[in-house]
Amino acid sequence: EIFELKAELNSDKKEKKKEAVKKVIASMTVGKDVSALFPDVVNCMQTDNLELKKLVYLYLMNYAKSQPDMAIMAVNTFVKDCEDPNPLIRALAVRTMGCIRVDKITEYLCEPLRKCLKDEDPYVRKTAAVCVAKLHDINAQLVEDQGFLDTLKDLISDSNPMVVANAVAALSEIAESHPSSNLLDLNPQSINKLLTALNECTEWGQIFILDCLANYMPKDDREAQSICERVTPRLSHANSAVVLSAVKVLMKFMEMLSKDLDYYGTLLKKLAPPLVTLLSAEPELQYVALRNINLIVQKRPEILKHEMKVFFVKYNDPIYVKLEKLDIMIRLASQANIAQVLAELKEYATEVDVDFVRKAVRAIGRCAIKVEQSAERCVSTLLDLIQTKVNYVVQEAIVVIKDIFRKYPNKYESVIATLCENLDSLDEPEARAAMIWIVGEYAERIDNADELLESFLEGFHDESTQVQLQLLTAIVKLFLKKPTETQELVQQVLSLATQDSDNPDLRDRGYIYWRLLSTDPVAAKEVVLAEKPLISEETDLIEPTLLDELICYIGTLASVYHKPPSAFVEGSRGVVHKSLPPRTGSSESAESPDTAPSGVQAAEQPAVIPTQGDLLGDLLNLDLGPPVSGPPIATSSVQMGAVDLLGGGLDSLMGDESEGMGGSGSFAPAPSTAVPANLGAPLGSGLGDLFDLTGGVGTLSGSYVAPKTVWLPAMKAKGLEISGTFSRQVGSISMDLVLTNKALQVMSDFAIQFNRNSFGLAPAAPLQVHAPLAPNQSVEISLPLNTVGSVMKMDPLNNLQVAVKNNIDVFYFSTLYPLHILFVEDGKMERQMFLATWKDIPNENEAQFQIKDCSLNADAVSSKLQGSNIFTIAKRNVEGQDMLYQSLKLTNGIWVLAELRIQPSNPSFTDLELSLKCRAPEVSQYVYQAYETILKN
Amino acid sequence: MIHSLFLINCSGDIFLEKHWKSVVSQSVCDYFFEAQEKAIDVENVPPVISTPHHYLISIYRDKIFFVSVIQTEVPPLFVIEFLHRVADTFQDYFGECSETAIKDNVVIVYELLEEMLDNGFPLATESNILKELIKPPTILRSVVNSITGSSNVGDTLPTGQLSNIPWRRAGVKYTNNEAYFDVIEEIDAIIDKSGSTVFAEIQGVIDSCIKLSGMPDLSLSFMNPRLLDDVSFHPCIRFKRWESERVLSFIPPDGNFRLISYRVSSQNLVAIPVYVKHMISFKENSSSGRFDVTIGPKQNMGKTVEGVVMTVHMPKAVLNMNLTATQGSYTFDPVIKVLTWDVGKITPQKLPNLKGIVNLQSGAPKPEENPSLNIQFKIQQLAISGLKVNRLDMYGEKYKPFKGVKYITKAGKFQVRT
């Protein structure tokens, strides 16, 4: 077939040629390899026939990369086409040249591109603008050297709106790989230009311009208002992406407007209709819109408070739309609309889709907790659902009823009897644990509580940890309430927990209860039966600082995942965190908390507890409740409370993530909010034996520096030998080099350059070799490095390609840098943050490594690692093994969490088992290598 | 920006790929297939999927998945909108957006994709401009081309792309100058068991077919523009005029396009043109149930309700249905458990009814869920919101155009719970 095509391509007849090229393109589209025809197709390029030319261009773009030498043949035609009198051809040529990703060609591209950027025809200019972005992608250095970036910046002031839009788009794309550069430095004049272009450019251009505007920080509320006024008409655009980008700009700048302003109210009113309209679009658009509305509703609930009905679920909505709608319904639920919402939720609970039904049942519970007036109706709805006897509905209902009990104690206990009837049908750990909690908590009102709990005890060993822990606590509660009849039961459970179980948490808890009960039963009562803090109203809210950041990312992927880009964008390199502008204007002092500084916000945030994942830890803590709202508790109990509290916290750290923690994919609220700060002091002191913080061990001595190795042998570099290593001292990275002249002539004019690399390493200063290097002479140089260079993912990740120039030639070599030079000094994570983050990172991201035969004990390991900015957050001894919990942060803001288990293998050596968790799992392997290097040297 | 596009059919074959930057291997689609498998139903595949190195954003249209690959932070709506635009363009060019049509015209498809996106940036997405650059295939043209040797690629600069009205091509000429507007309203509603309205709103659009020579400047006014408080406009509409005078003033694109879409919100009362009486029950411990549904007209402003079709997703346990229809015909597909009843026109004298026995799998528990009834209908010559066009004026050209307005009301997502 290829052969036939070849003959046809070389035919004299134009028609035949064209048909042949068409056939070639057709094969190419379906993935067949027709690269063998390259020279023949390129020969057809010199033609006046526009269609043929376009087809050949299509082909070139696809295959030039694999045939770079042949592609050079096409260069002349391109250059000629760039001079063509027809602007369409000029544009086409410059556009296609940019798509040919061959280094050699880019050199020839510069001149034509420069001309095209200043072309008289705006169509050519706008195409050339995009071409700069393409070229930057292939060779960033070239673009900077040639001054194209400045030309591009000038194009923002172009007279043609299309050119402006494309220049903005190109600059935004380039800026993304240069987070620190000020490519899009906007000032009031350029903003004005953009706003004018906004009205006249295409819908896609409007998206780019709006996204760019959103990054601007107006100088005062008046400027913010005038921008808002000019952006508002975009809300009526037919393109939903334009609408959402406009919403982003408005949501952000609104922050600066005073709430007393009439305009503020008008703007709020204007925002609702376009958001609702997005929901009548295709399901894919709806999904993205709903994820964003979820954020908007949390930030400014007033916008959509009257629009509850549009979120009602249709039975044939895709499941991903249904689940999102449900979430928003709960957020909008209020006293005014609760009746409607409940009727809907009850309807959903009879649908077919199990996931959706479960979520609907849970939603009923959340409504009860959120809207107090509705609690009674919610409970009766849940009871109705329990009557259906549909297994998973019953189990979900019991889980949420437990939460309702905690929110409204001593109010709905009459339903307990109905719950107990369903005891046998519960087969999910969460539901069993919830039921056991209820029985234990209300043991005094349930006549046969002991029988019920005893029935669970029979299969104690087969239960999941969650249920076991709950059962232990419940029986202890029962014993404290009815000591006479249940002595045997409590002994049984304590011995099961302490003697027969392998689970350290269960054992620890068992021992604590045992000792507590045997030493001071009164204190035990005060501790175990202490009044619990009420759970808060609003559940799984996004933490306010994160919410504010996410508002700045409306319409982007970050808004779909509800995570800041730094948490998931690949190789996220010091992504600049966006923040809402502070409010200016008159009402500054009378601000609502939502604009208070972030630190205050975190403190004011009420205890956010019952997301699924946290329920276990929370229930555990609860027994020995931290004195939030409870009565004062004796000192001893506070200390004991602290113990269990930490035990509970460690549960989440240590074992069974799968059961307790894995549950919710949503942002887990940091447990720090659940632990009041005032507990900090007794906690620290009372726990000396459990937690040995290694703070203060090992002073900053700078990180480990490997001996120098030869990177560039003299043979390969005309007599220049380079050896070197990397080091990090007090926050600065340097590359320590020894240059040796093994040639017979004097060397001078040294210079060094790095290729783009994974972490943006770049020389912070030029290579300074003061005197010419005489034959057989060496010079030692320490080259300071920074990490603000351009970023490109390398394989392996820590590969660095270096070019060194001297008066003789340019030499290239590549080297691997140890990752620990990138560990920054402020890499110590707060303990609570650590717990939350550890849970939040999915288990797939965990990587395990072994370090054999290390000659250090735990403390020595910890101090040695600290020297290289790997910080120990907690230490624990489990069955004679030391466990270290550590954190470190890379220069690009990636956190790596580590659990290090130290097992003595023989008297003088230990084996280390390292588990690493990180949101960017590809770095784990290199972090492990760094550990190994540091520990073995 | 958008990196690559894969077109995948329902059986999981990648039948077309296009890369605007470097080539991304087909294997990236494995993540998509994985998600597809998890979703079971094709409609339930999540539109945004993350993979270790890329993000996949997809839409499902006409039995084809359009899967785009992106690598950097890009607004997902931008990508989804663009993909729908691609599908619309195929529809526009080939009359249908199907696998066969795409495969038959693969070169044109490739040329179109190349024109629509440059390095991931949208280039020309307006149908008017695209048609100037790449002529749609017609039988006549391919015959003519093969005789004269001319091509279907235009040799002109797409003039519209530069002017301030990029949506209209220059030098339009017609012998008959016509401007037609279709006011189409769809009622989205959820009716509960007892027949009261849980939720209802009207989604309206005005689709236009404008064949006018030169550069006509039109203004369209309504009798009751107050109804339109939530509107999305085609870019051609002058927003300021609308804000101040509530008049749609615009220079139209050439040919067919959607002028505005609007929503009459649930705050206003929405008239519901049909009612449904239903009795669907499954007996405990017996393998049968009863089914009895009657449809009747209400609030239809004296117009006939026609094209009535009812579809019901029956519970899984339903084996078969033995029904009699007093009007129209019904089918039950026992594989996907869908009952379809094609009723036709409703005459108030004799209300259409469908009733009979439902056979259940023996031994299976009584189905918990109640099936929802999905109703479709049409009412000609009526815009249910009451929207009425007042007049159309033309400036800028001298000839007198033919003008016409048509109204139609349809059921959108109209569901009756039982």
TrEMBL record, chain A:
It comes from Buteo japonicus. InterPro entries: AP_beta, AP_complex_bsu_1_2_4, ARM-like, ARM-type_fold, Armadillo, B-adaptin_app_sub_C, Clathrin/coatomer_adapt-like_N, Clathrin_a/b/g-adaptin_app_Ig. GO terms for biological process: intracellular protein transport; vesicle-mediated transport. Residues 823-936 form the Beta-adaptin appendage C-terminal subdomain domain. Pfam families: Adaptin_N, Alpha_adaptinC2, B2-adapt-app_C. Residues 704-814 form the Clathrin adaptor alpha/beta/gamma-adaptin appendage Ig-like subdomain domain. Residues 573-605 are annotated as: Disordered. The keyword ATP-binding does not apply. It is a peripheral membrane protein. It comes from the Eukaryota. One of its GO terms (molecular function) is clathrin binding. PANTHER family: ADAPTOR COMPLEX SUBUNIT BETA FAMILY MEMBER. Belongs to the adaptor complexes large subunit family. It is found in: Endomembrane system. GO terms for cellular component: clathrin adaptor complex; cytoplasmic vesicle; endomembrane system. This is AP complex subunit beta.
UniProtKB/TrEMBL annotation, chain B:
It is found in: Cytoplasmic vesicle membrane; Golgi apparatus. Its main location: membrane. One of its GO terms (cellular component) is cytoplasmic vesicle membrane. It is a peripheral membrane protein. InterPro entries: Adaptor_comp_med_subunit (IPR050431), AP2_Mu_C_sf (IPR036168), AP_mu_sigma_su (IPR022775), Clathrin_mu (IPR001392), Clathrin_mu_CS (IPR018240), Longin-like_dom_sf (IPR011012), MHD (IPR028565). CDD domains: AP3_Mu_N. The keyword Cytoplasm does not apply. Residues 176-417 form the MHD domain. It comes from the Eukaryota. One of its GO terms (biological process) is intracellular protein transport. Keywords: Cytoplasmic vesicle, Golgi apparatus, Membrane, Protein transport, Transport. Gene3D superfamilies: 3.30.450.60, Mu homology domain, subdomain B. Belongs to the adaptor complexes medium subunit family. This is Adaptor related protein complex 3 subunit mu 1. It comes from Buteo japonicus. The lineage of its organism: Eukaryota, Metazoa, Chordata, Craniata, Vertebrata.
